[in-house]
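Data card: per-record layout.
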Amino acid sequence: MCMKCGYHTHSQIKSFAEFAMKPEKRARKQFILPVAKIRKAKEILSARTETEAVERALDLVIADEEIRKALLSMKGSCNIEDVYGRVAR
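The structure for this 89-residue chain is written out next.
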């Protein structure tokens, strides 16, 4: 339940967690990326490898989109302040 209005549940966010737990097909890809960005992502995400850093960064992007969709679906059902200005995107 929402801590502010007690109205909705977080089932949409939970569905992403279930999605992230499923075994996935793996594919070898080759990208040309800035070394500094990879190093920084690896450091921020405490990743052991560059591949792990990229995978975690992709997981964060996917989770962010799921959260954004959940918030948009609740729009008007309770008073959620968009303090970061991200919902308008």
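Known properties of this structure: The two ends are 25 Å apart (CA to CA). The longest helix spans residues 50-73.

See the next section for split statistics.
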